[in-house]
Amino acid sequence: MINLKELEVWFITGSQHLYGEETLNKVAEHAKQVADSLSQSSQIPVKVVYKPVVKTPDEIFETLQASNAAANCIGVITWMHTFSPAKMWIRGLNILQKPLLHLHTQFNRDIPWNTIDMDFMNLNQSAHGDREFGFIVSRMRKDRKVVVGHWQDKEVLEQINTWTRAAAGWHDWQGAKFARFGDNMRYVAVTDGDKVEAEMKFGFSVNTYGIGDLVALIDSIEEEAIQELLEVYEQNYTLDTELLHGGAKRASVYEAAKIELGLRKFLTEGDFKGFTDTFEDLHGMIQLPGIAAQRLMADGYGFAGEGDWKTAALVRACKVMGAGLAGGNAFMEDYTYHFDPENSMVLGSHMLEVDASLAKGKASLEVHPLGIGGKSDPARLVFNVAGGPALNASLIDMGNRFRLLVNEVEAVEASQDLPNLPVARVLWKPLPDMKTGCAAWIYAGGAHHTAYSQNLSSAHLLDFANIAGLEYLNIGAETNLNHFRNELHWNEVYYK
Fold first, then answer.
1. CA end-to-end span of the chain, whole Å?
2. What is the reported pLDDT for 457?
3. Residue 391 and residue 441: Cα distance in Å, rounded?
4. Cα 108 versus chain centre, distance
5. Nearest by Cα to 355 from 399, 418, 301
6. Quick one: which of 215, 217, 245, 314 has the most CB atoms within 10 Å?
7. Side-chain half-sphere of 164: how many Cα atoms within 13 Å?
8. What is the pLDDT of residues 34-72, one digit of tens each?
9. Concatenated DSSP letters for 440-496?
């Protein structure tokens, strides 16, 4: 599973030698206290590591250079406790490759009205020290997150929390590998894209592997391992008697377990963080991976169907960003609509592969026919998804840039049984309303495949987009369709 506490953010405080040793010692003492407090906060999911106060161009360069090389460092937080002349930062910022958060804070929350003097003012200069630093970062056109407020303020901590999660998602993409079993679904446009450009921009690679390589591993799985996994299925899910030992559909469940073990072995041995498959390329496989994809996603792998590598990568990033939070992140598809004027909703689902981390209650393991793919009946987990705030996110290749489109939604508890729909399913109301939300999504070129999240907010995805250099568009409660279309037009000018 994903453990964000293995990751670090470096806390770097700027000053200069002008103020003397006593002041610099106090700056270091304060900076360490702030860094330690952030690291120990239950709101911050990663370690915050204090670094010695930087006072010269060489110290700045060496510290930022070291952050680039540190394997577990996912970003840096900077704070100018005193005045740190910004020209000292140019060389270091030029080579910084990690995400940057500028914390505009000060050690004391309140002004000590009765005792304040010039010594206090010289020590506590963040109000203009941070503005000097802010200028040079803007002058150098470097993106960063700016958080303003006292370092013990819960709102400040939450903004830092959001950014660290986004930085963790970006860090996880660097060097990540995603496997495609088969190519893109034939003739489909939005799920395809430029894998070379993606690797240059995002740091992850996508390569195709023959189904035969996977089938060979599936066929090599030992009987003992299959029987152990079947026991896990029986302990964790509801199974009808026909799926138990000796039942008429037991062979389908047996084959599903064998496929899961083979897939897991392939991904583990190849150090992959996600995968795709397509029902159009299953030569040598008895059934399409259903429960296998669902359970692998639940363990943190990114996945999307029909060769959609962009969504598989986005699902993985969302799982990293949401690690440790209640709720899940999963592959999703807008499937069909309920156009009741008084209660319009989207029914989200997929043929087989929605992650059961979204499930409300215990999932049911079932075997049913699948009308496409030409293979035997696949096993899959069937469940309803809980209601509550959620979002759908789509990563789109627009030709000259990648776009991240996010729609905030309100999931709704299913009021009907849906007895003839044996798949995972969720109902949601797009914000701000059905017609505006769906129209805005289509104007923006959003895909039918998405990453569906119960535990991330648009703030997480915005920070992630800024770190990744993505065009970001949000459809939410305040969206006005005419304004949204204007934003699309302005963005075309900006990116051209």
1. 41
2. 98
3. 13
4. 35
5. 301
6. 314
7. 30
8. 999 999 999 999 999 999 999 999 999 999 999 999 999
9. HHHHTT--SEEEEESS--HHHHHHHHHHHT-EEEEE-TT--HHHHHHHHHHHHHHH-
Tokens of 446: 């959003």
Closest CA to 102 of 126, 127, 134: 134
* pLDDT tens-place string over residues 272-304: 999 999 988 888 899 999 999 999 999 999 999
Output the CA angle 487-491-494, nearest 5 degrees. Answer: 140
Report yes or no: 252 and 369 within 8 Å, Cβ to Cβ. no
The C-alpha atoms of residue 134 and residue 128 are separated, in whole angstroms, by 10
Residues making up the chain, counted from first to last: 496
**Over the range 269-302, which residues count as b (16 or more CB within 10 Å of their CB) and which as e?**
eeebbbbbbbbebbeebbbbbbbbbbbbbbebbb
For 385, counting Cβ atoms within 10 Å of its Cβ (0-12 exposed, 13-18 middle, 19+ buried), the class is buried
User: What 3-state class would DSSP assign to 354?
Assistant: coil
The pTM (predicted TM-score) of the whole model is 0.96
Rounded Cα distance between 127 and 426, Å, is 48
3-state SS, residue 315: helix
**Strand 205-209 with 379-382, pairing:** unpaired
- Which residue in this structure is represented by tokens 């930087």? 54
